[in-house]
Amino acid sequence: MSDDPVIQTAGLVKRYGQLRAVDGIDLDVRAGDVYGFLGANGSGKTTTVRMLLGLVLPTRGEVRLLGEPMPRAARRVLPRVGALIEGPAHYGHLSGRANLALLDAAGPGGSRRTRKARIDTVLEQVGLAGVGRKPVKAYSLGMRQRLGLGAALLRRPELLVLDEPTNGLDPQGIHEIRDLLLELHRGGTTVFLSSHLLAEVEQLCTRVGVLDRGRLVLQDQLATLTAPTGATIVQTPDPGRVRAALDGRVLRTDGDRAVVRGADPAEVNAALVAAGVPVTGLALERPTLEEVVLAAASTSADRVDAPGERSRR
Amino acid sequence: MIAVELRKLFRRPRTWVTIGLLNGLPVLVAVLLALTDLAPRPGEGPVFLSAVLTNGTLYPLAALAIVLPLFLPIAVSVVAGEAVAGEAQAGTLRYLLARPAGRTRLLIAKLVAVIAFVLVTVVVVAAVGYLTGQLLFDVSPIGGTALSGTTLTSQEIAGRTLLAIGYVTVSMLGVAAFALFFSTLTDSPLGATLGALAVLIASSLLFTLDAASAFAPYLPTRYWLAFVDLFRDPVLWRDVVRGVALQGVYVVVLVGAAWANFTTKDVTS
After folding, report:
1. Which of B9, B12, B84, B95 best tests the A interface by mutation, with the highest count of A CBs <10 A?
2. 8 Å CB contact between B264 and A57
3. Using CA atoms, how far apart are residues B189 and B195, in angstroms rounded to an integer?
4. Torsion from C-alpha of B216, B220, B222, B224, nearest 10 degrees
5. Which of A110, B43, B74, B139 suits a disulfide with A104, CB 3.0-4.6 Å?
């Protein structure tokens, strides 16, 4: 996998009257990433996604998609991008197959010769192969979501931009879609996943960006963000005795856990066993993505940084 | 892209239901006339209707004159108002533009589809009018009478009926342009349709008002009934030509405004 930039924005601003919906963000998504774009509702996620795709025009700043400027190069770039934007939308009176065919015929880069085969393939991929001629208005929410994903996959895009792709799916369906995305990623597709589901992002993504009130407050590899903190978590029926045995190294205790300074669980264990403290479990302390996101977002609420300053590394 | 829009329009059941309903009124009028033999006197009621009892060949024109003031503009406003706002309301606009369909291309395809709808609708009304006229009324084999009293051959009537079909189609383009422009302003197809109808009602009202005579020549509905002049002998071209030119100006200005708005707006639907 190369390191080519796939999505790059520079000082991207969108202002609606007095409101700065997106306030100077510098996204950096590289080929091979599964990028989790996190943010609360109203934080500017959707506006950003729409600016990436040329639907909303930026007030200031630049967007480059697959190395080309948007929206100027939309006709060249967008056929190589698949998108699911704020839920699926289809023509209700037509079948799923007819919907895919119409959308494919509506723009460049979708050969008519291969259309039927491509539609069969994506319907198979998203689990709608047996859906037949039923009109989309008779589909369940989950089926519509699958069809929307199918539409995004129709031209084997290099980049998938997905907004809440598992919305409306049952746990089984979520699992299936996650497997499908991982499979596509292994095949070389870059995935940009906008979501508010931290667990989903934590399971899928290699890289994370966090948006808060229109600013990108965090952008880094997931592995870096959730790297060990240098402390060890000790499970023990009697945390009080840990404090006695390892004087000054205990950072905090709660319930049957004690957090001890030191990134070597074996060393901590040896010290505790020598002191006769029963140990039922040992683990390196890692922050969860939720802790990372909450910390980043809550600081930003009362901070007034220069646009983009905190996002650059 | 144009083929896609035409497929969308004509594969939609609603399009054909609209065209079917539009033909209901002329057929009903024809049945009533045939049953009662009570035609309006010349100069009263919709044009051509006084003549159809004696010559059914003129019924396509009577049918057009019946739907022209209200039914036809409503149908055109609904379809043109739906064009962009309907996609926005359904959410499909964002997927079309991200496909990418291209905003200018999409607008042109929508315009062509609306024009095709107008043409198909007018032709169907004329065709159904022709069939009803043949079935329900006496048909004069040698042709018919022009409004000025001289006789027209069947070929002349056929030729002038085709011209009338073309003229009525052109007359509807102004309405279509208003509805299409409004359709790019709002995400509500109903709003766009009602906006276009409001323009028409205002135009019809101002036309009857002497105080508004200064801009009467520029009202979009001013020359709608000029197709009647095609059946004078010789043809009175003045109003027909002015009508075509006026609709042309409305289409150019409004489609230009629709383009300027649509290509620069944020699509948030």
Report:
1. B95
2. yes
3. 10
4. 180
5. A110
Among chain A residues, the shortest Cα distance to B91 is held by A89
Q: Does A246 touch chain B (CB under 8 A)?
A: no
Q: Which chain B residue lies closest to A79 (C-alpha atoms)?
A: B99
| Domains in chain A: boundaries | 5-225+290-302, 231-284
Strand order in the sheet with A231-235: A250-254, A257-261, A231-235, A281-284
| Residues spanned by the domain of B201 | 2-264
For chain A, percent helix, then strand, then coil, each to nearest 5? 35, 25, 35
pLDDT, one tens digit per residue, over B156-174 is 888 989 999 999 999 999 9
Q: Are strands A34-39 and A207-212 parallel, antiparallel or unpaired?
A: parallel
Alpha-carbon distance A268 to A233, whole Å?
A: 10
Can you tell me the distance from the alpha carbon of A114 to that of A303, in angstroms, rounded to the nearest whole number?
53
Question: What is the ipTM for the molecules in this complex?
Answer: 0.86
- B226 is a domain residue: yes
Give the pLDDT confidence of B82-136 residue by residue, as tens digits: 999 999 999 999 999 999 999 999 999 999 999 999 999 999 999 999 999 888 8
Strand partners, A135: A95
